[in-house]
Every structure is written in structure tokens, then in C-alpha cells.
Design goal:
10 strands, seven-stranded parallel sheet, 17 helices, three-stranded antiparallel sheet, about 10% strand, TIM Barrel
Amino acid sequence: MLLRYHHQDRSYGAAAEIPACGGLTGTGFSLTLGKGNRLVCDAIRLLSSSLVNTSIEDLMADFGRISRRLADDQALRWLGPHKGIVHLALASIVNSCFDLWAKHRGVPLWHLLLSLSPEAIVQLLDLSYLEDVLTQEEALALPRDQWSSREARQTILSEGYPGYDTSVGWIAYDDQKVRELTARAIDQGFTAFKLKVGSSDEQRDLRRAAMLRQCAGDRSALMFDANQQWNLPTALGMCSNLAALQPMWIEEPTHPDDILSHVKLARHIAPVRIAAGEHIPNKVLFKNFMQMGAVHYVQADCTRLAGVSEFLAVSLLAKKFGLPAVPHVGDMGQIHQHLVLFNHVALNHEALFHISENISSIPLRSAEAATRRHKSLELRPN
């Protein structure tokens, strides 16, 4: 196994590719906004050097230990630890390994993960620093406890699952465009919508939120996403006002490192719930958020965590704490469609998926669609 990395000045992410014997290539992305991709790609090159000429089956047979070794690289760990550029690089590497593993076995990723025993799943994971709340034995018990009821949930593979539409409410859209897009989404069958808030004009945010509730109706689910724009005093006031519209959740209401402010907000706006995870960088901080009751919807993202394996560890944590895992996907939704299928069938997590205009305008309908969309991860020349 060799590894090459890709960078384009305008690209919305950084990517690693793993070419292997037989013409197969594993592709893995991490989610960035373009600027700084060169730094992530340099970190990919440094972190991946120890994997060269390793067979994919040997690598994945001991992946939990190997991924911990990569994350704890003696020198690069000082650039984190377990966050920032080196963690994004690790996401690309890990995701490319899972992609290549699935291709080597000739099955889509969701199928590969569901074919694994609980023991094999846990073998993929680095559970270090989680032992106080999730031991290896407890991690094994979570999928084992759901094993006998898996068949009842496998209908999702043919029937699909619902999505919510975040493309109706980008912050720059004027009121008329929000109305038009909401009406179009309703015609397409959507019953859940997300609106961006957190602009410099609080009254505009509140007006648009009330307008969306009016357009969508009382039976629709609404989510409001502040993208970390509020300090705690502002968040307390805005969340109180938005709570009157009965949203399903308020997302990223303040700085993602400020766990205590999330705790205060969660208590202040209850029973309205808080969603977070897009910028929670690792499993340790997710653990702390869950322990403190600072998050209710766990929006793990395998392109910002250390790839599929850390995503699965966070999904197990969420199951342990009785919290729904609802991935943040940005424009890297293809891989998360596979992980939603696994989480629902194997762990009995709720199957709720974020749909954006860059992925799809309709709910995901089948595992076949997930398989087809996963192929869009392949890198192509401009």
C-alpha cells in the first residue's frame, strides 16, 4: 500500500488517496474551507509514512492500535493533541483506509461495517481516555445488545430514511428566497428544515425564524444554527426567544470549546435541546459534553474527527449516554450516509440525516443510493 495526497487551491477539503495492488484506490477527505489545505496535506504526508507497503487487511486487523499510534506521533502530537491540522490529516488517512478496505472486499462501506462482529468493530477503535465512561467490555456490549433486533431495522436498507433540508435557510438569503425554497422543499416531501441564525442583526434572525415557522407550519420540525456566533449573554437571550418557536434543536449556539456555557444554555432553554459536534474535535471533548449534559444531539463528523473509527467511538459513547447521533455532514455527506445506516441497524440510533443543496434535495431512499453516492468520493481532474 502506498499513499499520495491531493491539494487544490480552490478545493473544499483535503484528500488522501491510497493506491493498492489490483488497481484499487482508497479515497478519504477531511472537511476544510479550502485555504490551508496545503498544511493539511503536508500533515497527511508526515503521518502516513509509516503505513507504506502495509496490506490493507493487515492494517485493518489491528486498526485501533495503529490509529492510536498515528494520533500519538511523538512530534506531531505537539501540534494538537488530537485536534487541528494533524487531526484533519488523520481523518483523511483513516477514511481512505476504510474506503480501500471496503473496495478490497468488494462491498460498499455500510455493508462492510454491518458484516463485522461486535468484537471486530471494537478492534477498529481507539478507546483511550474513554475508559472512565466506556470500557472495552461496555463497548462490546452495546452492539451485542442490539444484535437480536437488527433484522427489524434492516428495512432501512430498502426503504431509506428521512432527511432535513438545510438549503432553505442560508444566512445570506432574503426572505422571499427562504419562502420559495421552503415551499419547494415541502412539495418534495420534506417536513424538517434548518435556518441559519447568528447574523449581526438579531431582529432579522428572529423575524426569519418566525417566518420559517409560519411557512413550514406547526407540524414541521425546525432547527436553528448559530454557527458559534454568540457569546453567552447573547446566546441566552437569543435562545430564549427562539425557544418560543419550539425548534427541535438550536445548533452551535456559542464557542465549541466552552462546555460550561453550553451547560448553562441547556438548563436555561430546556426542554429545547442543543445540537453540537461540527467543531468538537475529538472523542474526549465529546465525552465531556455528554457527561455535563451540554449536548443533546451529537453531530459527529468523520471528516473532522479522526475518521470513521473515531466517529464510531463517539457513536458508541452517544448510545451509552442515551443520546441520538445525527452526523454533521457539510459537503461530505456521501460517507455519512453509510455511517447512518450502520448506526441505525447495528446500534439502534435514530436515522435522521442532514441533507444540503450540495448533496441532495430529497431524502435518502435506499442503501443503493448510499452506495452510488459513495462513489462520488473518487477524485477526478478538473
